[in-house]
Structures are given as structure tokens and as C-alpha cells.
Amino acid sequence: MLEVRLDPAADGGTALSGWVGVPAGAFQATSFTVLGCLVSLGLLAAGVVQLALGHIIGLVPTLTFPLPAVVFTGVFVSSRPALESEIAALVDQVNEVLGTTGPSKHKGGFCL
Q: Are 75 and 82 spatial neighbours (Cβ–Cβ below 8 Å)?
């Protein structure tokens, strides 16, 4: 998502400012997190029920219930560098179209 606005610059001109990135309320991240939690809780519940019934096989889901959370965390962590490179490419295209100079990187993203 690209959100920009025109602001008056200190030298009397016009400055382009804003941010580039995924919106804070991104539906995909929320739905995948909920799905991972439900799968983890389902594994834990199935394992506990199996163990309560005296089946040793219940150890497998009981001990593996954190794995979905680890997988989802890995996906989010590994996709962040790709997102940052795509943001940099988008900012370069904006600079090319507008004939402006490069952005300054600051904590939390790029500042145009």
C-alpha cells in the first residue's frame, strides 16, 4: 500500500511524504494467525484426550502442538525481506515518475 501526501517544504517548495507497506489491519496475517492457533489448540486437545483414554499415541499431537505456530512465524519472518525489497522497488518507481531524489530509510519503513 502506498499512502502519500504533498506537504510544504522548508525551502518554500513542495515535499512528498507518506509511507509504503502493508496496512496495520492486514486480513491475511490475522486470519493465518487465528488458523495457526486453532490448529495448535486442536492438536493439544486431541493429544490430551488420547492420553486421558490411555493411548500412548496421544503423545504425538501433545508434543507437536507448537509446530503450526513455528511454521507461521517462519513464514512471516522469511517474507519480510521480500516485502522490503518490493517496497524499495516501488519507492524507486515513484521517484522516477516524480523526478525526485531517493527516500530516507527510517525506523518502521521508508520516508519519502
A: no
The share of the chain scoring above pLDDT 70, in percent, equals: 77
**In the Cβ-directed half-sphere of 34, how many Cα atoms lie within 13 Å?**
6
Task: Give tens-digit pLDDT for 73-109.
Answer: 787 777 777 777 777 777 777 777 777 665 545 444 5
Per DSSP, 91 falls in state H
Do the Cβ atoms of 17 and 4 come closer than 8 Å? Answer: yes
Phi, psi of 100 (to 5 degrees): -105, 175
Do residues 5 and 96 make contact, with C-beta atoms less than 8 angstroms apart? no
Which residue spans within 26-108 are E strands per DSSP? Answer: 104-106
